[in-house]
């Protein structure tokens, strides 16, 4: 593939910083939005992140670096806006780093000018930064586990690639190993990074030497070593047993094929983005499930077979599935799929789109601008959902009316905003959907007698609030 596209060098140098600034500006209106969903347990309800001293006393523990970031946020103060500001900065940094990574990979694959490679990098970074699905890893504060992990993953990949081009490559490889360890200390799915490294090697036109395979193999060994060392101290065994009790590996394969197909749909249909879809797990191998699973397997195999002859689409496909693998695999999760699982995987389809736009020649820049405007509008619309807990859960129950958990949470949000009648209706709907779900039953009874925990006293006295709670 030989792509030439005009792009002045001064604009190319400015692109990552422009993308960083645009990302920050687009997300700034979401700063005062409410804490949501797991934020109350992960940040407020977990005493281990209440301060730096509390975090230090709780170690060793899972996701130590991620929890340290929460502890420092609490230590420094600033409330919800400070937490979300950190999320936004991390996400904007990720977008800039992804520009550098995708541009570098495009140039290493060959057949493309510097200007066209910059367009590939810009489109990849812009789609990654501004796709509305990313709000679940940015505006939703607990989504920091994805964005913070990705920051270290991208740094590791860039350092590793840099080391392959420089004389003192061992130093860059050590820096990459440090970043990889930091990523694992944020979230365990970072362990698939060695597979992403192998994918980068396989997509290059020159066949890699044995020496090129040493860092990915060493990184894989490092991940295994760290997990083995941490196993006696961290609850990995309990989590694995719980997963196997939820669904067996074969049953979960059926459930996850449904989840992956759903996630692919989320890339294109922004109107159905949903923070808590609670997909009904499909565990029976019906004809439809077999067809979906077979189709996904065919796509993956086609990507593997096409790596040498058609590296660009093959790379995009395999990157997408590599980063979905830890959360959509044989190991069961309670929820079959969530929008935030697309966070780093989305860079694969974005990369392919970048190549398509780069082929437009002089129309590439106008096409990139038009795409950016659409993405900005979509993200701005999606961020409005996070404004209050009531708006958040109203959006969920509208799209997933079967979700009893969401109806219960909507009832709590309405009760805290003194809309008692709405809260009663939400709790009753939750009870109707799941008669064995005890939380809405308890909450409804406590609401009726004026003892619902956390509900403002003015609500119990029948006084309407002056402004919605944020």
Task: Describe what you observe in this structure.
This protein is an all-alpha fold and 470 residues long. It has 2 domains: 283 residues, no CATH class; 72 residues, Tetratricopeptide repeat domain (Serine Threonine Protein Phosphatase 5, Tetratricopeptide repeat). Helices cover 67% and strands 0% of the residues. The protein contains 22 helices and no strands. Helix 9 packs parallel to helix 11 and helix 15 runs antiparallel to helix 16. The C terminus is likely disordered.
- List the uncertain runs: 463-470
Shape: globular
Q: Which structural class fits the helix and strand makeup?
A: mainly alpha
Q: What's the β-strand tally?
A: 0
Rg computed from alpha carbons, rounded to a whole number of angstroms: 23 Å
SSE order in H/E notation? HHHHHHHHHHHHHHHHHHHHHH
Tally the helices: 22
Q: What is the helical fraction, as a range of percent?
A: 55-70%
Please tell me the overall pLDDT.
89
Largest sheet: none
Number of domains: 2
Q: Give the CA-CA distance, first to last residue.
A: 52 Å
Topology:
Blueprint: H1 9-27, H2 39-44, H3 52-58, H4 64-76, H5 79-109, H6 114-130, H7 135-138, H8 144-165, H9 169-184, H10 193-203, H11 210-230, H12 236-246, H13 249-268, H14 287-305, H15 311-324, H16 347-358, H17 364-383, H18 389-399, H19 404-416, H20 420-433, H21 438-448, H22 457-460
Helix pairs in contact: 1-5, 1-6, 3-4, 5-6, 5-8, 6-16, 6-17, 8-9, 9-11, 10-11, 10-15, 13-14, 14-15, 15-16, 18-19, 19-20, 19-21, 20-21
């Amino acid at each position: 593939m030989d792509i030439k596209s005009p792009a002045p060098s001064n604009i190319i140098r400015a692109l990552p910083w422009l993308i960083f600034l645009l990302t920050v500006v687009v997300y700034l209106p979401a700063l005062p939005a409410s804490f949501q969903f797991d934020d109350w347990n992960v940040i407020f309800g977990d005493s281990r992140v209440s301060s730096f001293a509390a975090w230090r006393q709780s170690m060793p523990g899972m996701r130590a670096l991620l929890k340290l970031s929460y502890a420092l946020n609490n230590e420094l103060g600033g409330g919800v806006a400070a937490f979300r500001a950190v999320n936004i900065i991390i996400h904007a940094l990720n977008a800039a780093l992804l520009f550098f990574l995708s541009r570098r990979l495009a140039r290493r694959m060959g057949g493309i000018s510097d200007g066209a490679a910059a367009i590939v990098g810009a489109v990849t970074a812009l789609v990654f930064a501004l796709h509305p699905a990313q709000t679940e890893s940015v505006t939703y504060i607990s989504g920091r586990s994805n964005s913070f992990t990705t920051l270290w993953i991208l740094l590791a990949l860039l350092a590793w690639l840099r080391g392959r081009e420089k004389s003192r490559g061992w130093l860059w490889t050590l820096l990459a190993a440090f970043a990889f360890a930091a990523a694992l200390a944020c979230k365990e799915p970072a362990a698939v990074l060695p597979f992403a490294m192998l994918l980068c090697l396989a997509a290059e036109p020159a066949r890699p030497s044995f020496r090129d395979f040493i860092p990915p193999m060493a990184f894989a060994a490092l991940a295994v070593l760290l997990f083995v060392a941490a196993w006696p101290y961290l609850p990995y065994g309990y989590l694995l047993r719980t997963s196997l009790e939820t669904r067996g590996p074969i049953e979960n394969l059926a459930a996850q094929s449904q989840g992956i197909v759903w996630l692919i749909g989320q890339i294109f249909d922004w109107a159905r983005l949903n923070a808590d879809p609670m997909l009904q797990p499909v565990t029976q191998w019906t004809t439809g499930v077999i067809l979906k699973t077979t189709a996904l397997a065919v796509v993956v195999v086609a990507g593997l077979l096409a790596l040498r002859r058609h590296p660009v689409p093959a790379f995009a496909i395999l990157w997408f599935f590599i980063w979905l693998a830890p959360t959509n695999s044989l190991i069961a999760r309670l929820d079959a799929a969530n929008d935030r699982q697309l966070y780093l995987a989305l860079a694969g389809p974005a990369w392919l789109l970048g190549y398509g736009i780069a082929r437009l020649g002089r129309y590439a820049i106008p096409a990139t601008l038009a795409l950016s405007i659409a993405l900005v509008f979509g993200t701005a619309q999606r961020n409005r959902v996070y404004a209050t807990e009531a708006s958040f859960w109203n959006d969920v129950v509208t799209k997933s009316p079967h979700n009893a958990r969401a109806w219960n949470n909507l009832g709590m949000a309405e009760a805290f905003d003194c809309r008692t009648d709405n809260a009663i209706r939400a709790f009753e709907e939750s009870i109707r959907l799941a008669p064995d779900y005890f939380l809405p039953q308890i909450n409804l009874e406590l609401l009726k007698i004026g003892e619902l925990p956390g509900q403002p006293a003015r609500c119990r006295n029948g006084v309407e609030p002056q402004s919605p709670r944020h």
